[in-house]
Amino acid sequence: MKYHLFFVLYVLLLVHPLKAQHDHLHMDRPDSLPASKAGSTMALMCQARSLNLPMSRDGSGTSWQPDATPVYAWMAHTKKWMYMIHGNFFIRYDHQDLFHAGSRGGEKWDAPDMIMGMGQTRIGYHGLLHLSAMISLDAPFAGGSGYPLLFQTGESWQGKPLVDRQHPHDLFSELSASYAYAPNSYSDLFVYVGYPGEPALGPVAFMHRVSGLDDPDAPIGHHWADATHITFGVATLGWRWKNWKLEGSSFTGREPDENRYNFDQPRFDSWSGRLSLNPGPHWSWQVSHGYLKSPEATRPAENVFRTTASATYTSVWGMERYISSTMLWGQNKQRQELGSNDALLETSLRLNRLLAYMRYEWVQKSAEELNLDPVRYGVTTQFPVHMLTLGAGYDLLRLRDIRILGGAQLSGFREDPRLLSLYGKYPISGEVYMRIYPAFLDW
After folding, report:
1. How far apart are alpha carbons 109 and 142 in whole angstroms?
2. Rounded Cα gap, residues 429 and 333, in angstroms
3. What are the tens digits of pLDDT across the range 23-54?
4. Closest CA to 208 of 183, 225, 233
């Protein structure tokens, strides 16, 4: 019964968005909003942690996207506050290993989703307060074991590691607050706290970056790059100078537990640092490094050093016509062991109602992560896996500020020859889905 209530509330939020004021939605997009010149209304349309940057630069947590990034959201204003809601809701049939090449596939109806609400207001002449809340109904729809996804690893269910499945996200995926102070037009100081929240580690999370949000699947290298996007206990301090940003975080290294409806114990036993640069309106780069204490509950003795680097390019050439691409590398390393790596390239192309996207990944998975016999394969053995996903969609309905898209995708895998007995040769997965999401925000 409680899951049905969650679903009803969720749908109400999706089909009755906040109505934006027409005049505000059709203002020219500013390249910057100098604190010394911005009026109270214009200042409310800035980036979440700067009075002097456009809100299109906002990524997940405190990360940056290119300024040219299109924004899909519903927005409303009061005299002192700006509110915004965005989200993504898939109703999907997922069949991993369509032709039964191996023994590790699966199929399921599910609904990967998230909805996020934000509000911000000026504090005095130089300050900005920003509040964020995000929820996901992954667990009620997909169950505690999540959805099938070949070669995916990370987190657990009923005390056992999840293998060939993507874990569900927590109901409360972010509850955060930040305060930014702009002493002048080219610098900011900010503090960000979340319970849960996202530390300064990795790129914009996959379901928030425009190059990746059209694909309903998590990348199979998720736990090499952006798995810290839901962390129960985060504190970040950051400084921006012009188009550079330096951040440091203290956070909980343990990933969320199997109870997707509670609040896990904050530990603040891990740390990270990130350097970001937006060299122009079309690019966003970052490098980051962090230490995660005991991230996996099923392997509590393992501590991980994670290093990532990414570049995102976005270009817009008309109303809802754009291309966005992300190149990403991530590495997990334990002391005195070789690191395992993940490389990703993804692109999304939008031509008004028509959408096409691709994602390529190469990731090294260990025998332990794939739940293989350590005596036969060796605990530290690494198995390279390639995955290529091609997908397309079309907006079937546009109901005022709501879009309903129909789409499909195919994924092909090429694994290490030693895994052929489990996965078969070149397994293929397919999905069809309906996606509900907000309209493009022409601000």
Report:
1. 8
2. 30
3. 333 333 334 444 434 444 444 579 999 999 99
4. 225
